[in-house]
User: What shape does this take?
Amino acid sequence: MLDAAQNLLGVTFFGYTPKLFITQVVYEATNFSGSTFLLKFAAVALIVWTIGSGDEDLTSRWSWIILFVATAVGLPQGVRGMLRVTMGV
Assistant: This one.
């Protein structure tokens, strides 16, 4: 979500162009700077719903693995994007 928020603020207020190919394609297709924010919000909601559903097959270990992977994929992109917007790159 940090990456999506950074894209939303960067495109809307600072003239930032997204670096990721998929983000750029979604933004150009919808012409709405919040489109990736909505997509990533839906993905996070799906992850939280899956973990919180109380499914007996989903053990605690798998819940932690899913959370770790989601964080490892999203956090570095958001930090990199925030640094790019801050430095004006």
Summary: The first helix runs from residue 2 to 13. Helices lie at 2-13, 21-30, 35-52, 60-87.
